Amino acid sequence: MSLSNNSGNHPQFKRVLSLRDLVIYGIAFMTPIAPAYIYGYAAVSTRGMLSLAYLIAMVAMMFSAYSYGRMAAAFPVAGSTYTYTQRSINPHLGFFAGWAMFMDYVLVPLIVFMVGASYANALVPSIPYWVWVLIIAVVITFINILGIEMAAKTNNILVLFMGLVVVIFVIFCIKAIVGGESANSIISIKPFFHDETFATSAIIAGAAMACFSFLGFDSITTLSEEAINPKDDMWKAAMLACLIGGLLFIVQAYVAQLVWPDVNSFSSADTALFDIAKKAGGAALATIYTIAIIVSTFTAGLTGQASASRLMFSMGRDEVLPKKFFTYVHPRFKTPILNILLMCIISVVGALALPISFVAELMNFGGLTGFMFVNLSVIVYYYFRKKEKKFVRYFLLPALGFLICFYLFINLSALTLKVGFVWLAIGFVYALITTKGFKKKPPIMEGL
């Protein structure tokens, strides 16, 4: 029996996604305009050297992106982190990897509903926040139900728009830098290193914060069963999405720092890049940037909801979640419609009941936990189980990815760690009951 193939008795997805679609999907999840979410706080944290923090974070995430790509080549199925850990290390450990990552995927559409509704309400105050939440939820859910091909086409358009806004923002910033009162040079080392304020601890803290912008490249691998050529395209897409996204983040942080050198003088840390956009291009640029932020919530919401629904599908297919519900695929659209609707309900309720700051903190717990499991899976599967003694490829690179993620993980806030481990404890109790004390394996693993 091949673990990477499904029986004809199982529901199937349509293979329609090209390498370009997969890369855009990953970038859409991260969103090209992601620095807007954290710039004010991260710029202060790094003492004006956020570009360096983003560079470090990009390099760190590339190790994990490599590991995701290697595991997707071995197991081109929809479960991503859950599947890789389950089939490489242990089926029960795989459940916990999926359980941790599930929290991350659930929180992504939830937080983008919140952010999108907040900015939309600020732009059109006459429409209440809760109405905007429902509008965003309905649009995203409807597109995902129609199918991943429709979602991919929508993302292509929205990512193109955000990319254009980023380009416009950078051009206006360059114009403001070289044409300003002080006529500064566009070439400067200060966004990467300023000897008067540099502190290693500040840069590390900033890099940990910058990793938030990269959460999402891993979602590409949840679409393995809908990719045209998953074995070749998955690792390329994960690496390219991480690299392209990182370069976009670095450039935005670089020009923003030169336009507004005093990072302690923003009117509000929440809207720091809007202050910079207004200084560089006036109210028109600030408005366009605001619209781009709202658009980013649609791209991240589409990808987050799609990824979570497919992770639940894979766990249902392996019968670690109730199979009948979680593996139902709409006969016409070929999408896990019940999972999508469940995700919509969870996200709407959470968006109306929880604070943004709390949700944002929890995302790092699930994301970093999943990254550690996948890096470890590469080592166990390739280096030890398959005896492929390529030290750098199958041991050193994933080991570095694991250690980097572990270091960032242990530096999460006490509240985040406490709530995250409570979530894992709930999963432990659920698994203990459904596996009869961890004696019962998922049916797909029986006899292996």
TrEMBL record:
The Amino acid permease/ SLC12A domain, residue ranges: 48-436
GO cellular component: a single term: membrane
Pfam families linked to this entry: AA_permease
KW Membrane (keyword) present: yes
Transmembrane regions listed in the UniProt entry: 22-42, 48-68, 93-115, 127-146, 158-178, 198-217, 238-260, 280-302, 337-359, 365-384, 391-409, 415-433
GO terms, biological process: transmembrane transport
Membrane topology type: Multi-pass membrane protein
Keyword annotations: Membrane, Transmembrane, Transmembrane helix
Cited InterPro entries: AA-permease/SLC12A_dom, APC_superfamily
UniProt cross-references to PANTHER family, sorted A to Z: AMINO ACID TRANSPORTER-RELATED (PTHR42770), PUTRESCINE IMPORTER PUUP (PTHR42770:SF8)
The name this protein goes by in its record: Amino acid permease family protein
Natural source organism: Neobacillus bataviensis LMG 21833
